[in-house]
Amino acid sequence: MALVWVITGASRGLGLGMVAALLEQEGTIVVAAARNPDKAEALQKLAERYSGRVHTVVLDTSDEASVKAAAATVEKHFSDGVDFLINMAGVADSNFVSALQTEGSEYLRVLKVNTVGSFLVTQAFYPLLKKGNTRTVVNVSSRGGSITNHRAGGPISGKIVAYTSSKAALNMQTAVLAGALKDDGFIVVSTCPGWVDTDMGTRSDFDMPGIKPDLTVEESTKRHLALIAKLTKDDSGKYFSAANDKEIPY
Ligand SMILES: NC(=O)c1ccc[n+]([C@@H]2O[C@H](COP(=O)([O-])OP(=O)(O)OC[C@H]3O[C@@H](n4cnc5c(N)ncnc54)[C@H](OP(=O)(O)O)[C@@H]3O)[C@@H](O)[C@H]2O)c1
Known about the structure:
Strand 2 (about 30-35), helix 2 (about 40-50) and strand 3 (about 55-60) form a beta-alpha-beta unit. The protein is globular. It is of the alpha/beta class. The chain has helices spanning about 15-25, 40-50, 65-75, 105-130, 145-150, 160-180, 215-230, and strands at about 5-10, 30-35, 55-60, 85, 135-140, 185-190, 240. The mean pLDDT is about 95. Helix content is about 40%, strand content about 15%. The protein has a seven-stranded parallel beta sheet, sandwiched between helices. It has a single domain, classed as Rossmann fold. It is built from seven helices and seven strands, in the order βαβαβαβαβααβαβ. Bound molecules: NADP nicotinamide-adenine-dinucleotide phosphate.
């Protein structure tokens, strides 16, 4: 029995890396959701190479109509259900600045994609996930969304308020949905993939002297998938680091 994985943000970075890694595993089918899948060259190459095991679908997490249309399209192909939803799509603040310089429109843009967007995707795919075998939702958050860590200080202290709050709110969404979907036997978790050498992870304004991304996409993805494979219902509502398997304090 093939397991069906739905991955948002599949055009590049960690989303694309997860699509590639899953296709190397036997018995997986991937729904690769992206804003512009036709323009995502690497994704198109995977779709050609693994014809029949990759289904691309248009999905913009900031556009509710697009999210609903994507779920309806997936339902046509996978009416028996889907197994895993990975809410990977995400954006960061345009500038790595002190919180006081962040404009309201910028704050809302990030919350819309990262927090409300992930919620809308989970809501839209819930009926299909309920029909599936594993009923697992992974909200890809960030260590930067830990209020406990932020209070402890460090290089991002006082900065990137939109991204950090969007991920803190995503973590709360994980906890709330874990409660809402408990009786359905769902597993809902937040994860941090580690600091990874993607477009987001290598932005020049994130550059801090002596501190660099410590994981490649391949290494992060390997650890992320190993973490997901071990999840049980007791883990629902928790927040994990894929880099070291440990729980992150909220
Ligand atoms: N890299 C890191 O070090 C790191 C650390 C902690 C957490 N994370 C999290 O990991 C996830 C993936 O990050 P990444 O490093 O792979 O980032 P990335 O290289 O910047 O890729 C971001 C992905 O999100 C997609 N996306 C952006 N806005 C979207 C929207 N409105 N609707 C649908 N897709 C959208 C992008 O699609 P387009 O190609 O269409 O723009 C792209 O596929 C994010 O949630 C990020 O917060 C990353």
